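User: structure tokens for Phytocyanin domain-containing protein, please.
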Amino acid sequence: MGKELSIALLAIAVVGLLHSTGAMETHVVGDKIGWVVPPGGQYAYESWAAMHHFAVGDLLVFNFTNGDQDVARVTKEAFDNCNSTDPITLKTTSPANFTLNTTGEYYFIGTKDKHCELGQKLATNVTAEHGSPAPSPAPRGPVTYVVGDKLGWLVPGGEQAYAAWAYGKTFIVGDTLVFNIVNGTQDDVALVTKPAYENCTTNSTIAVYKNSPVSILLNTSGEHFFISTYDRHCLLGQKLAINVTSSTAQPPSGSMAPSSPTPHGTSGPGAAHAPFSSAPSRIGSGYFTFLLIAHKAFLYIKEGMTVTISKNQKVLQVFGQRNKKGSRKKTGAT
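Assistant: Done. Predicted tokens:
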């Protein structure tokens, strides 16, 4: 009887161990892109992390070029300030593996020159084991979001920049968007309809705000669209689309009211923005890879255009010099 009980307990332990092991996941940071200085800035790895669920027992794998890159686990303060002087752990050989063995936040940065400042940094939040029931989230109060964070509101390297910033964030009625206009009097932010957003139509706006910082209270659910009305700014990526969901949270009496808009073009259907579908938009798992590839392509094309222009300038200079020599010969002959 005692032997049978021991076997039964051993079987239960083995099954439990197998279940725990099978539940662990391996996350390759950045997927195929790996651990690099991302052209999209810190939003690149923020977007990647937003698409994954990290639990106790999971493994993070950092793939990078030895000698050119490294990865350090650091404190939150060191992460925020890109301080690599006293890391918790530093790994210089790829692949670098980190086991997430406790719940809470983990912070990683690249310690090479300016790599962290340029966006080679990752923050993850580790929850309990996979499959464990998540506690019911407590209702949150209104949140103020600074659009683009430190980047501010400007012409970025393509529309993916603000899409990456918005990805993973939850906007609810009562929240506030703050646009810090970087270019001062040479820029603005406009609330527009979806067709105007998609086509970058600047002469048909709902409201236009010019005085930075611009604070806009999200008082209706649905999709909200923002662009810059200045020449080609929207076409170059200065545009933001968000989806606002309803909530029982009441905005505090001290919430910032929207800045006073100035008339611009033909107004839309009244001051109230008619809400679109409140269903949250979904971005596929390949979004992070697309973001980095798009930025690399943008930089590659820009660099190629510069080289081509330089070559053409040299050709024109040589051609002009030859013409001058020919003119001198003709003048001497006469």
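User: Anything notable?

Assistant: The chain has two domains: 23-127, 144-280.
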